[in-house]
Amino acid sequence: MKRCVILGGGDIADLVFVKECLREEDYIICADRGYAYCTQMDLRPDLILGDFDSYQGVLSADCEILRYPIEKDDTDTMLAVKEAKRRGCDEILMAGMLGGRLDHTLANIQTLVYAVQHGQRASIVDKDCFITALAGGQSVTIPYREGFHFSVFCHSDEAFGVDIRSAKYELQNAYITNGFPIGVSNHFLPDADAQVSVQKGILVIVSNQGE
Known about the structure:
Layout: E1 3-7, H1 15-21, E2 27-31, H2 34-40, E3 47-50, E4 64-67, H3 76-86, E5 91-95, H4 102-117, E6 121-126, E7 129-135, E8 138-142, E9 148-154, E10 158-165, E11 171-177, E12 186-187, E13 194-198, E14 202-209
Parallel strand pairs: 1-2, 1-5, 2-3, 3-4, 5-6
Antiparallel strand pairs: 6-7, 7-14, 8-13, 9-12, 9-14, 10-11, 10-13
Helix pairs in contact: 3-4
């Protein structure tokens, strides 16, 4: 499985944490200001792309660069996801996707869903937050982290056959909608990973730190 790491221009709470999530064989794409994070982590990206409306610094001369107009339909993050797909990456790890403008955060979550709908496994990570998505017929393990809880949201209008297992509040073959947050603020069992699956529909799962 070939994994792509996409670095965006949102907030990153802890660069050391993000760098520790990377693997030596990862294909790294920097979306616009994500290149600034890449240089701070002393990493060499494989591809830099974007309209560069939020990064005007010097770009590396020894890696591929794709430039796009500011007025376009795709966000820089969406362009990065599509390039990752085109280059054979079937797993995507995204960082620098949260914080800052709320509309950008929501757009990045929608882009995460787009990746999953197009056959990729995808997640957004930061030190205090992990977000992933599931399409029908898929399942995922949500890793236990001390002090974290998790929430399961319906992203499509409806979701059928939702299972939540190894958690304080479990569901089995449930029907949920995007009009009621029945899956919010679930709790991990002590030292146990949670399991989530869906038969039909799309789920977004958020695991973050807090009471």
